[in-house]
Amino acid sequence: MLNATNCYVCKTCNGKISTRDIDEGTTPFGIACKMEGCKGIMYSRFYRPMEGDPPVTFEWYRRRWQWFMSRMERDHHDKGGLFLRPAQVDMAAKAIEAAEGFRRGK
Prior knowledge:
Shape: globular
Radius of gyration: 17 Å
Number of domains: 1
Strand content: 25-35%
Low-confidence stretches: none
Number of strands: 6
Strand order of the largest sheet: 3-4-1-2-5-6
Distance between the termini: 37 Å
């Protein structure tokens, strides 16, 4: 779901991350825990936001360069699968925000 936000929760350490889908595609139900030192599995909350969810720190995206993928990754890609990475800073939005702040004397 494009621009949808999801939360993943680890059953081992209770850590949470929030993700955003920046491309259309499918995302997995479970991923390796992203909390430092934890070897657990984080499970999707199926796009049901709850109060207290952390801000988005990861994003699901569609890879563009298939020749850099392993066979397993290419199979996932060919079936519509998205890949997870740390959230990218929207440089254009930051530049506009900075310019508006400059105009206001901040």
